[in-house]
Amino acid sequence: MLSIILKRLGQSVLILLGVTLITFSLSFMMPADPVRMIAGRSATKATVESIRKELGLDKPLPVQYIKYVTRLAHLDLGRSYKQKTQVTELIKSRLPATLLLMAGAIFFEILIGIPAGILAATQRGKFWDNWIMAISFAGVSMPQFVLGLLLLYLFAYVFGWFPLGGYGTWKHLFLPALTLGISGGGWYSRMVRSSMVDVLCQDYIRTARAKGLSELKTVLVHGLRNGILPIIAMIGLDVGIFMAGAVVVESVFGWPGIGQMAWQAIQMVDIPVIMGVTLVAAIGIIIGNLLADIVMPFVDPKMRVE
Amino acid sequence: MKKLRLLTLVLFSFLFLAAGVCLATDIKQGGKMVVTYKDDISTLDPAIGYDWQNWSMIKSLFNCLMDYEPGTYDLTPDLAESFEISSDGLFYTFKLRQNVKFHNGRLLTGQDIKYSIERAVNPKTQSPGQGFFASIKGFDEMASGKATELSGITLPSPGIVKVELSRPDATFLHVMAINFASAVPKEEVEKYGEDFGKHPVGTGAFKMTEWALGRSVTFERNRDYYMKGVPKLDTIIFEVGQEPTVALLRLQRGEVDVLGDGIPPARFLKVKNDPANKNLIIQGDQLHTGYLTMNVKMKPFDNLDVRKAVNMAINKERICKIINNRAEPATQPLPPGMPGYDKNYKGYPFDPVKAKALLKKAGFADGFTTELFANNTDPNPRISQAIQQDLAAIGIKAEIKTLAQSTVIAAGGEPDQAPMIWSGGMAWIADFPDPSNFYGPILGGGGAVKGGWNWAWYINDELDKRAMEADSMSDPSKLSERLEMWRSIYISVMEDAPWVPIFNELRFTMRAERLGGPDAIFVDPVHIPVNYEHVYAKDAQ
Amino acid sequence: MGIQEELNTANFKVFKKMGYVVKYFLKNKLALAGLASILIFSLSALIAPVITPFEPDTQFFEGLSLEGAPLPPNSKFWLGTDLLGRDLFTRLVYGARTSLIIGIAANGIALFIGAFLGIVAGYARGWVGTVIMRFTDLMMAFPALLLAIALAAIFQPSLWIVALVIACVNWVQIARVIYSQTMALATSEYIEAVRSIGASWPRILFVHILPHLWPTILVWGTLGIATTVLLEATLSFLGVGVRPPTPSWGGIIYESQSYFLDAPWLVFFPGLAIMALSLSFNLVGDALRDALDPMKRGRN
Predict the structure, then answer these.
(1) pLDDT by residue (tens digit) across B444-464?
(2) Among C55, C62, C259, which would you mutate to test the B interface (most chain B Cβ atoms within 10 Å of its Cβ)?
(3) Preceding amide of B300 cis, omega within 30
(4) Which residue, A164, B186, C217, C289, has most beta carbons within 10 Å?
(5) Are residues A157 and C156, on separate chains, in Cβ contact within 8 Å?
(6) pTM for the model
């Protein structure tokens, strides 16, 4: 197991290098000139060129890339073109918000997904099962921005229970986390249901039932114990998804996460920020996937071969 | 100096009155104010900051040699106690104030002024304001990295800063009042390096005491400020990441005092029509023109009749309505608040029939197909669609390309990419209240280069010459003559019709009931959104 | 056995399966509802001009209040007007075209790329397979939405470009699923046997492997559209989707977002449309998966 993890770590470094290469290439393919964005409209051609030289953007792209990677090896992500601040500082200032939202979202996914999945599994084929599965599909089919705006309209504007977006207290966190939680919770409930259905068909559960264990206890103790692994795997994947994938929810709720920062950086062609955020997000995704991959073999023995 | 005063007094007498009121000194200092912004504050380095949010914040942390009377466009000495201009307009001699201290306690010297301007010109600083100093002697050498200082700035004796220009520049005093010319202490700049923007130290009315990245910035009153009784407030807290809609609700609840981004467009009608807000909303002018450029190098916009037809085809009234009448139809490049604006010029009338006839005359009876570039942030896609519909009515099929700001700017800087560009969202608000500010980079031949901002690629050598002539009239006694020249330049531009001036934005500032001060400082043409130094708290009185 | 016969047998199996699928569908009310709603959306997209008397791009002078506010639903404009005075209902009907075209095209392209690479990697294995799969690993580590935004910023979206951008992001998952299935098949004893009697590789691929992959491709072809519809809406919502004035549901919400407290219908009607279309494809795709998976069918 350990050797597999070590091997994966080695691969991860290569993957991260690939991510920087792709991001780098894409950034320079953007039909916009970052220097012109820094220089502003009163700049002369000479100013533009001197800034270009100052930033090293006049060098051939491969040279620039090698320079970037060399600095990266020293954990230096460079400075934002626009803000002049260290990219690491910028990310550090926003990462807590991203992680907080992620935690909140996963909390709601579990809170919604597990009970709904258990209920559906125990009621298999019956009324509740059908409805829960239909609703969970509605949840995953709803665009996050529509759900977010809907929650914002109802619970913040009409009822006034929550602030209309922003960052700070648990009340600020509630609605954006719930938005992500509802759309993700749909997948969780389906996952829990199907793994519980598998488990509930097993002989030992029948035995447990036959022994007179109460239904609730059977389901919780035996069913959930086996159903929990896929959930952990899913959380792993979610960590990756929410690293930079919450852009939309962040923008609806004015949440100061790294997704929003990346989005603004793309608009401004602030290449060091684009590179930095993508890299951090990729690290998050890799860690999440690794977590999922470590858990998966326990879930499905067939996967162990790989 | 006196002459300048007199002339400006005549020109801006109405604004000047307002200024007189807000200089009232019987107002007690104290209290705090909360200002909200949606976007993060990028930097408070005066050589770098060029955003909506930080522009006015920097003004209250730093000082320049010159400034404007609060609430007006009226130049007044600031760090300079007085100044003299040589008769040929090439030498400016500033006498510094004696008692000005940086926030770190050190006294300001002439060396600081020289250092600060040179810092903005130094290519290493990467200042977007570098170009403003182009008329100072030695600029080219320093900007190209050949010299390490500006030969035109000398310090003949302590407390005197002498600036020599390479050509007369009537806007030079404005340049000495622009943020990029702010005095910064060398030792602090060197201490923080590129992070100076997060640790600003100036001479201004406020000093920055706390910066929670991505959350808030706190300013405290500078108790050693050279101007007695200024600023009025003890504390200003700038909260960022605040959606305008949220900020408005918080303002109504009393948690916020000023909306940095203004009243959110979508709530505008409701807020404006609510009688309770009557005294809280202050309307003013913005030195802004939203325009549509036509690339005169690209067919068919090389044809004057086509450009005139487009000018007549667009229903500006309706576009203003689409943005809830938060703007007024424009007739010329200059906005109404700008000296040199021609009130009597009516511009091209909205007349689709005549526009169609002009197209026919130009040989496009069946119209033609073209492209319209626009920024992709609201309301610009909407405005460009309204323009598109108006053009379709006279047979011009314009395909809309809504793109990120940086992409539109890049396309405009190429001679053959963008036939039409809607300027909205690309932040063309005047840097300083002088008519020349709307010419150079955006209509002058110098801007019609690759990477430039003259997106119409309009080059008129004769007008360039007249513009040059007007800008060398730095003798204050010739001000009205100079403004008249500028007026005629813009009317000549309109005859060539490289632009369709669409509208001039109006400014609506909403403030909390507890903030006091004359209306003029809430729509201060230089300090946007409000003049932080002169606003006072009613509850501290 | 000749190749034709083998193909016939394979096809027969598929047809037999189709029989199950149809039977399963008739029993599954949710899937039927999804299918019906897809048909309704497609039909209205096709005959949009018959359904609505207006053009989607016409900005009505009377479509805005005197102060420029959009109108709430009324007798002339059934679902109200947008911020330019256009009829919202008309834009929604025409918007179905955008969503469906992009949904089907983008997912089709993604499916093609994903299936092709997955099959090649799974069948060839060796270094070809390694290169392809490491590349998918790389793409998996890339934040998908950021990638789409960056691609959209580079290629200046039109309808087809948006479809391509989405395909560029969405093929990865498909490739991985197809890869693992192909590999499982290619290493199975059955294929080993076929190979040992000297069957050529095209024959093995097209006759013995591909028919087994059809169910997966079919399921992803349906479920993927649901994801694609959402992604298109999201890109439009961020302002990097199809160009105005092409009506797009996500785009309508983007243009009206700032108004949503006063004119919530401008957000919720298009939002409902996006959800309904995506949900329909999800329901049908899910039912297909259950129907094509005998293990699951037994259990439900």
Answers:
(1) 988 898 888 999 999 999 999
(2) C259
(3) yes
(4) A164
(5) no
(6) 0.89
